[in-house]
Amino acid sequence: RLKEAKCGLYLGPLRLLAAEVYDGMTADGIYANLFTGQERREIPFSTHASATVEMASMEKEYDVVVIDEIQMIADVTRGAAWTKALLGLRCKEIHVCGGSEARDIVKKLADACGDEFELIEYD
């Protein structure tokens, strides 16, 4: 769904993951930006971005956002960045990926916000 969206964002915990997704999008012909703590690659007419979760822009509107490693929401040191992204991003659709231990907290947050929650599990 991310690559098919008119405007999309991938958020991951590591610069390496963000760069890997960025490389995949650009290889597929998608104009994308890369935002990490160490690197910024900006294209003025880009439609997509890949970033570390701490670099998420709360001002821009997206059609689809993917938040990877959602179980990090419980991390004492970095969890606030996942909470901020999950609750603060302006988007039509959020997909979260990660450990099943995050399921209950994500569902509770979605319910508290009045948002729809759908769980799809993969082997």
Short account of what is shown:
The protein contains 3 helices and 6 strands. It is an alpha/beta fold and 123 residues long.
Can you walk me through this structure?
- With 123 residues, the protein is of the alpha/beta class.
- It is built from three helices and six strands, in the order E-H-E-E-E-E-H-E-H.
- Strands 3-2-4-1-5-6 form a six-stranded mixed β-sheet, with helices on both faces.
- The protein is globular and about 35 Å long.
- The mean pLDDT is 94.
Rg, nearest Å:
14 Å
The main sheet orders its strands as 3-2-4-1-5-6
Helix content: 25-40%
Report the average pLDDT across residues: 94
Q: Main sheet, how many strands, which sense, barrel?
A: 6 strands, mixed
The low-confidence parts are none
Task: Please work out how many helical segments DSSP would assign.
Answer: 3
Query: Strand share of the residues?
Result: 15-25%
Shape, principal axes of CA atoms: globular
Task: Please give the alpha-carbon distance between the first and last residues.
Answer: 19 Å
DSSP strand tally:
6
Structural category is: alpha/beta
Order of helices and strands: EHEEEEHEH
